[in-house]
Structure prediction request, 1137 residues.
Amino acid sequence: MAARWSSENVVVEFRDSQATAMSVDCLGQHAVLSGRRFLYIVNLDAPFEGHRKISRQSKWDIGAVQWNPHDSFAHYFAASSNQRVDLYKWKDGSGEVGTTLQGHTRVISDLDWAVFEPDLLVTSSVDTYIYIWDIKDTRKPTVALSAVAGASQVKWNKKNANCLATSHDGDVRIWDKRKPSTAVEYLAAHLSKIHGLDWHPDSEHILATSSQDNSVKFWDYRQPRKYLNILPCQVPVWKARYTPFSNGLVTVMVPQLRRENSLLLWNVFDLNTPVHTFVGHDDVVLEFQWRKQKEGSKDYQLVTWSRDQTLRMWRVDSQMQRLCANDILDGVDEFIESISLLPEPEKTLHTEDTDHQHTASHGEEEALKEDPPRNLLEERKSDQLGLPQTLQQEFSLINVQIRNVNVEMDAADRSCTVSVHCSNHRVKMLVKFPAQYPNNAAPSFQFINPTTITSTMKAKLLKKSRRWKSKREGSDSGNRQIKAAGKVIIQDIACLLPVHKSLGELYILNVNDIQETCQKNAASALLVGRKDLVQVWSLATVATDLCLGPKSDPDLETPWARHPFGRQLLESLLAHYCRLRDVQTLAMLCSVFEAQSRPQGLPNPFGPFPNRSSNLVVSHSRYPSFTSSGSCSSMSDPGLNTGGWNIAGREAEHLSSPWGESSPEELRFGSLTYSDPRERERDQHDKNKRLLDPANTQQFDDFKKCYGEILYRWGLREKRAEVLKFVSCPPDPHKGIEFGVYCSHCRSEVRGTQCAICKGFTFQCAICHVAVRGSSNFCLTCGHGGHTSHMMEWFRTQEVCPTGCGCHCLLESTF
Amino acid sequence: MVSVINTVDTSHEDMIHDAQMDYYGTRLATCSSDRSVKIFDVRNGGQILIADLRGHEGPVWQVAWAHPMYGNILASCSYDRKVIIWREENGTWEKSHEHAGHDSSVNSVCWAPHDYGLILACGSSDGAISLLTYTGEGQWEVKKINNAHTIGCNAVSWAPAVVPGSLIDHPSGQKPNYIKRFASGGCDNLIKLWKEEEDGQWKEEQKLEAHSDWVRDVAWAPSIGLPTSTIAGCSQDGRVFIWTCDDASSNTWSPKLLHKFNDVVWHVSWSITANILAVSGGDNKVTLWKESVDGQWVCISDVNKGQGSVSASVTEGQQNEQ
Prediction:
């Protein structure tokens, strides 16, 4: 996947830091990177504005580092180094080791601050002990769990303060810290070593393990024999952790090749394909952590540290979060709709047990989260057909069998409390039904505590309920309701396209300096974050270097194009971008290499290229079109001028230039006319030395035309013209007036400036008597004329034809 | 990711059946069961009503913008059996032509690639497809393919003008010989491909058979110059197929199931580079699909279209029907 799929917005490089571990503090302000010689403290709000260092003297790398996750202790972090743990205190821009925890006799493999008690830290070690430390008393661990086997990971349960999990090779043990002698549960989880362990953020019994055996498994430890789900991977999995939002999971693979993308976001309910690939790191991602959400922001930020020595921050916007969601919010929407839609009139005698309160245990809930509100909705919608008569009846029809939706109904009080609970969202809503409901009054909706959704979402939900309310009241009051038309939503999908408007604006095509063109385009690609294109353009810079330029003599050397890195490399690049359907890159590459294959140095052997600053548009092609004085102009837009109707008015001024503009599409006119064998050989050499295979010219032209069309849509008409200059195929036949040209030597009819029969140039300039190949102007009356520049010069002072034929060309027609 | 850039309150009084952005993505045309066609200027997130076009006597099913090289032209088709071509002249939109050559509801209109001139294909419930060609001076020539789809034709979509498989160098000085082609879908559960013969007659070239119910829409993918042709088709049966033809000479098409939806799929629409397919269905959702490099189609987004009576149109910003 190309880089555009990523939403990385910050990259900070720490060259030579050799940091092995990273941690983000609970306030989202700082990250610590643990290098061998220094600990780097990065201010995440201003990551570029330098960083602080804490130097350390140790021959051991830091094994694990973690900030204390409690706000009040947010400036403490623990770092393990061989057998000991150093507790650092970070205050006012400097840090120092406060205390050191010593107890383990072998290297410490992992450490984890307790989720509920700010003073507790657990460490695991190869020495087979798991120690729980109270940092108020650092002399010895308060609890020692004896595992007999060495542990590689240790993690506190996020819901149960006494519970923690450790991994030992392929096994997982669940501990209760009050029972240190033996583990509560054993899970023979994997066939090979477990690299990562993560508890579910909301479910007490659920955890995810990632292993060397190329899989991530999801467990409910109450069923230790059977995993809940498995995510098979092609490669060993380094870490797999739940996201703080929705039902996401982030995995880091251990890639076989360094450059493989290894950071993936998944929806745990759909493990077929990842939701997102974070593309950017060039090497193994060593650590990733979530930053605390900024106040008022729905975005999450993922902070990653890789062996490529860069720290990156990736924005995970609500759109992406939704991809990990289980339609919970939609569900709530519709849930409310369905409540308010249920029609039913007055009170009833029906008494029924309304105590359907259901409390889902955390463990079951995970397995049952699949789309509950939707089921509820469906049940209810179908119920509408039955038209319940009373509120009581309506209540009785509500499906309460959904485990994370809890409905408490009180028909006597005419109220109902609905709480929905999914991952870390909680919504509790009080619905009150007026006495007239449902005949003349809509229920009222009110959020009550605990509701964790944002106020904007609340507003949205309330708005929706109001809408139903008004609708209901409206229809009930007897008005015939007009079927309301929905709104038309226009979505911007530009980010999904392989082409970028901003690149279209930034790209240049300077035929006089191909090198500069490539370099500038590389810089432009960097600006829009297309790193792949930066490399492509750098490559193009090298490939178009003058020293690789073909020699004119075919016998001198094999042209660069024949080298594997010549045409072959370019072709494989083009094939790649074909697959991505990136017509922008295709067209630009084709144009640049087309330009490169046209002789350099003297910009164009057939005449000067158009000077943009001049009003006079000089034709730049080998075989120009025939422009006659004022009477007609050949069109530069073959695609846009074939029909009978004119194009939109604003185009007119561009096209009405009295000089016309001929296009290089005509380049290929008459190019089959060489008959001399030496010419033929030169022609062959000409084809061999091109980096673009001339056999595919038609396709390359199609790329340029297609890209030209896209540029046109973007309103970048000049850029379009620049690209279309490199189209080589003939234009559509001219539909306006055409001039028959007869060769002045053999009198045969000619198309173009060179006669196909006698090879002579068909017309000479009346002034310099040299064959005209560039832009020309002729008098329609006497037929004399010549180079546009010469004619201009002549008629600036003269009125009659330069040949002396006596024709008053200026009066007959205007130059 | 995909973001909403505008929400246009059309104030149509009934269900909106189609919404199309113009070539530049600056104007939006909508049509509705309220018999009207509306044009909005939607530049910079605005929504200025430019025209409220009345002339149809029944629900208007579809609208189509002509290429801007011909001026500002919009075609619409309706249940009233008519096709109307609207044209902007000096800032006002007026009816330029009315085609009443069908015996039943006209369900789909589609302009040919601009390279061919102004040609409009119209598919109708009378089973016929008519082709209107502008011959100048307000005159339109009509060709009709009778009985193109038994019981009715629901959709038409032109092939791009770039000749697929045009890798062979054309002789210099000659215009590449475009062959006009379009695809149609109908109530016979078929997608048919049509080709203009040298004598100017339209001939059925191919039947693409995969759906088990009415074909609701077909969309021929725009070409970026690659030799493969691609057509997307969707049906009442909830399935969306992607048909590809790698070899223009043998003209063999192979289907690939994109997805089976639980509800009818109304429309399919390609992005300009044909890398994204938008699909709208009876579940009131628009999904976007992308072909991965290894040729698998994956859903990359799930856009809930909001609530209320939602029409079945597919409209993506920056993306125009061609």
Notes: The longest strand of chain A covers residues 94-102. The radius of gyration of chain A is 38 Å. Chain A touches chain B through 72 residues (CB under 8 Å). The first helix of chain A runs from residue 318 to 323.
